[in-house]
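Input sequence (183 aa), recorded before submission:
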Amino acid sequence: MSPESTGQNEHYIRVVRRRFRAWRGHRPFWAGLFTMAGGIPIAYFPYASMTLGNMTLAMSTTAGAGSLIIGVLLITLGLTMWYHSIVRVFAGVAAILLALISIPVANIGGFVIGFALALVGGAMSISWAPGKPEDAEGTPLAEHRDVERSAGESHATAAAVPQQQGAGYDLAVDGDGGRNRAG
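Predicted structure, token format:
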């Protein structure tokens, strides 16, 4: 054994973990994971059979193909949330609708397990929004601990929520009277 052999791959593992965390932070990762996890029991339970000793318990129904389609679509929507986060709202609404449809079609939504997971994943996908980096100039004065307030500034104005400023309307853009330039 050489003393150099311990910890050789620590740097590689840290780099992979850091890249995964950066990748995960720019997309609705948990929403996609919950949606895919909800699709698995919905697609699996109608085709599953459990053996208890000599007795076989089969959960197959006449709607096995419908539940398979719903499960595969939920897994596809979960992957869509991961790799095409721009359509996250559509994927979330579709996941919620498929979860609701799975109640009568796929053994009460995969025995409520798949239904609940797909419903939560769809809701998380709809509510997810990409983060914006914070800049030091845009943060309120109350968040800066090292900056002292001036004597004329009261505590109420420092903690007040800043008002949003609209972009306004540029009249130069609408110089042709609102008509289409093509005709």
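Checked by second reader. The mean pLDDT is 77.
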